[in-house]
Amino acid sequence: MLDRWRLKDFACGEGLARGAERGEGEGWIPVSAPGDTYLALVEAGRLADPFKGRGEAEAAWVREREWWWTTTFEAAPPSDAGERVELVFEGLDTFAAIYLDGELIGRADNMFRRYGFDIAARLTGAGPHTLSICFTPPTVAVPERPVQAWAAFADRVSVSRRHLMRKAQFGWGWDWGPDLPTVGVWAPVRLERRSGPWIGDVHAVTVAASDARAQVRVNLEFADAAGRDGLRAEVTLSGPDGVQAASGVVAAGGPASLDLAVDAPRLWWTADLGQQPLYGLTVRLFDGDTLLDEKTRRVGLRTLTLDTSDDPDEPGTSFFRFVLNGAPIFAKGVCWIPATSFVGVVDEARYRDLIGRAAQANMNMIRVWGGGIYEPDLFYDLCDEAGLLVWQDFMFACAHYPEDDAAFVESVRIEAREQVRRLRGHACLALWCGNNENQVLNDFNNRVAGAPTQLDGLLYYDEILPEVAAELDPSTPYRPSSPWGGPSPNSMRAGDVHNWTVWHGVPLVEDEDFVGGFDRSPEGVAYTRYAEDMARFVSEFGIQAAPDMATLRRWMAPEDLVLGSEGFLGRVKDAPDKANAMMVNVTGLPATLEDYVDFTMWTQAEGMKFGIEHYRRRKPHCSGALIWQYNDCWPCISWSLIDYDGVAKASHYAVARAFAPVMGSFKPLGDGRYELWVTNDTLEPVRGEAVVALARLAGGADWSETVVFDIPANGGAAVWAGQARDAVDRVLTVRSTEGLFAANRHLLAPIARLLLDPAAAPVAVFTQVAPGELRVEVSASAYLTFVRLASDRADLRFSDNYFDLCAGETQVVTVTATGVSEADVRVDSWNGRAIRPRVRPRPGEGGRTAR
């Protein structure tokens, strides 16, 4: 592995004249590979951290410079005429010229491709050899040509021309991300020496599976093996316990397949439905008794299909549901963006933390969004282990992409083949998707503009990508886009939908026509409008919220910690007034940044709870809810559930409760009428009792009723119906007497109107269980909402947070982190807010406001 490099910048075109191809001259600074140019500059003191203060704008010069990376290595000449020595680059970002010992050996222009160069003939001595790479600024490398942008939406391509390059699209800025286009060696570089035949690829597919038996087909490819007699491959499949489960031998002169039968297999399930046993697949290539090569893989035994058959109970619609090991599932999850803007720096701890917490939050699917990157192997390995399915977009997002550049088209084809080959063997891989939103944006633009525009890029989504997927990974379903289905791309009658009615005010689409128009008023974007969504599968929906105040303080200058400051607005990449429309009828408008944090967190948490409950009650007609978005690539105000520092917002905990395998939720019917639904995603029936009550905020209840329920496996039903009028001093609650689902409630008025006792406060009892574990027992004497355990430390992890407590109720929270103690945790609730905002009254409430 070639991991120690140096870098230096020049005016465009000057590097060669100054000996950069040989690493000559002064002023080089150290950098690791994989690595990032910005971070190397920060470490060397040449650049302020782009994430701190107003550093994003101060880093704009980086994209204009020509960057050279250089290293030296020792390598012996080939030992014989048949030995191949390949210099392999797993990822170069993006427009690169590669020099070895001062001579140009090749070029790269696609961040998502592997590039290899046979340098055997150039290794005339042991070295040291100098390897240098010149990265040309994208604005210089990309040809000038007319740019097609959608008039109905913000133009995010004319300046960057990002769609004309195979580079992470989000790096040029998004409505949640900074404008920091990366440059450099962003994936591993290594030398590979080979002599004679070797194993080119190993790909295992579960053809059929039941509790009694599984059939696994192992597909093998070999290199430099053609015409060689006597080559054989020995294949062994070992169980999670290491005991051999099946084996076989196959001739290895060319591509080969071998079917293995596994008795009593341990099937791979998502985190919410079972275990994630991984089998060990070992392939050894022999020539007689001589071992030539060996490869190992981890394999999950499972079948997965996508059911798009007609839905008989909703005529004119079809299902969109994943079927795992024969069981239809409700996909509960999130959309993933790159874990940092600096994609060359893979922080294993960050990946493990985020993926582990997704599974802990009752999720079973992550969608890798098409404006980012194909994630590193670590990501998919962790999803295999955690039981999280992966919806994998190809890297196209929100733009027209050229079809008339033959070299660009061929590069996309190679990129797709390489990425499908790399990822197809993972148990977690559930779907290939051609792009993010290109078809729907073109469709919406044509409707608004009244003039049809042909979408550039259909060559990829309708021809190249499905052909590659069908050839290399036919067992994994392919979709041309997200959203896609029905008479129009965002139709609620088929396929998947992106719901941006809430937040952006985009109209829903039933068949081909809008249901209403664009409406960004508070009523038009209210999260209660999720109840209008009759989609089959919702692959994007979300509400923006600020991160914790402690996160903002870590990254922002003190003078910018004010609403409306330039530094604050620089962290809000979408239009700042959209948050006001969401808050005005829920919490009222904030007066301080602290208010803004609390009010946006509350609105996001309540909105996600409301939306998820609605979608899950519609099961099986709706079979998935993927939230936009899970994580952040920098410290900002965004739709994320977990901020850049790893601090979970209130919404993360609300989502975890709403995604629980068994859920009790109230469905508003209008006119003060409600139903209680119990939704069961498990594969076993659920029977029990629940207590429904109209609780007083001051304590006690007007009434309570015990309800008996019996819900079939993978089903849901209404189990109670009743009345509860709008009220500022009451709340509708439900509790399972056996603890089969988490307690839930429905507020009968917006939070700003509730007559919460401002003197009531949570009582917390702390117990130090272990050096890294703190037990906090929280109790209430009156109704408390938004009970929060807060800390200035970003590394604390809470088993639950931002919850409600009725009078007399107690909840235990476990806090974990190295060296955590009582001094690290503060406990408070919404009741203690000193200032209560005024909001517009609802009809019939007489204009009263909470005091």
Overview of the molecule:
The protein has 851 residues and is an alpha+beta fold. Helices cover 16% and strands 31% of the residues. The chain is built from 13 helices and 45 strands. The strands form 13 sheets. It has a six-stranded antiparallel β-sheet with strand order 2-1-3-9-6-7, covered by helices on one side. Strands 26-25-24-23-22-31 form a six-stranded parallel β-sheet. The protein is globular, with a radius of gyration of 28 Å. It starts with a strand and ends in a 23-residue tail after the last strand. Mean pLDDT is 95; it is low at 834-851.
Fold blueprint:
Blueprint: E1 4-10, E2 29-32, H1 37-43, H2 55-58, E3 66-73, E4 83-89, E5 92-93, E6 96-100, E7 103-108, E8 115-118, E9 129-135, H3 138-141, E10 184-185, E11 189-195, E12 198-209, E13 213-223, E14 231-238, E15 244-251, E16 256-263, E17 279-287, E18 290-299, E19 304-307, E20 321-324, E21 327-328, E22 331-336, H4 348-360, E23 365-368, H5 377-386, E24 389-393, H6 406-423, E25 429-433, H7 438-449, H8 458-472, E26 478-479, E27 497-499, E28 508-509, E29 514-515, E30 538-541, H9 549-555, H10 566-569, H11 577-583, H12 593-617, E31 624-627, H13 650-658, E32 662-670, E33 673-680, E34 686-696, E35 701-711, E36 715-723, E37 730-736, E38 744-747, E39 763-770, E40 773-779, E41 784-790, E42 797-798, E43 803-805, E44 810-816, E45 826-828
Parallel strand pairs: 22-23, 22-31, 23-24, 24-25, 25-26, 27-30
Antiparallel strand pairs: 1-2, 1-3, 3-9, 4-8, 4-11, 5-10, 6-7, 6-9, 12-13, 13-16, 14-15, 14-17, 17-18, 19-20, 20-21, 28-29, 32-33, 33-36, 34-35, 34-37, 37-38, 39-40, 40-44, 41-43, 41-45, 42-44
Helix pairs in contact: 4-5, 6-8, 12-13
